[in-house]
Each structure stands twice: as structure tokens, then as C-alpha cells.
Amino acid sequence: QVRLVESGGGLVQPGGSLRLSCVTSGIIFSAFAMGWYRQTPGEERELVATITSGGSTNYADFVKGRFTISKDNAKNTVYLQMNSLKPEDTAVYYCKANTRTVIATYDYWGQGTQVTVSS
Known about the structure:
The chain is an all-beta fold. The protein has no helices and eleven strands. It has strands at 3-7, 10-12, 18-25, 33-39, 46-51, 57-59, 67-72, 77-82, 91-100, 105-109, 113-117. Strands 2, 4, 5, 6, 9, 10 and 11 form a seven-stranded mixed beta sheet that branches. Strand 4 and strand 5 (46-51) form a beta hairpin.
């Protein structure tokens, strides 16, 4: 059974920092690309950052220079370090695992963790 469990969300003041974690089980973690996405009520889920199985990273323009995605293959965990947080970063943050074979694409999602940036 595949499980992705996010943690680390919470309430933080503008300018503050949080580190999100996503622990996975049931997948060969090192073979998966991992990503963080976020969603606010009434809006589409949007990409925040991704990291490939080889460690290459990609960021949405609105988080470049503030957020850092990383992973620890030994712990089957992906992280999102969020600095200089803004009120507009308030959202539910989701972790996603993705891999492809010749015949299929596999996407797995976590349940999400709430991040609220407010004074």
C-alpha cells in the first residue's frame, strides 16, 4: 500500500519559515520524482517545486529564491524548506510521487498539510 504523509504545516507570521516533510512508504522512493503542490479554496492545485529521481529541481516562479525542495533517499522523505513566507503562500500543501513505465504513469498524493501565513 502506497502512503504519502505530509507534516510540518502550521501558522507562521509573514517573513517566517516552515519546513514541510513528506514521508513515503510502499514505493521505491529513489525511482520516483517528487513534488510539492498547493491549493487554496476555489482554485486549481498548482505546482510549487519538483525534484527528479536524479536530484534535479524545478520551482514555480513565485517561490524561486524562497523555497527549497530536497530529499533523503535513505529516509524515503522529501522536504520543502519555506523561507520569507508571505500571506499569499497560505494554502494546503500536497506531496506527490510520480513515476513512469513504458505502459503507465503512476501518481500518488498525500492528504495535505495546511500552511497559514498571517500576523
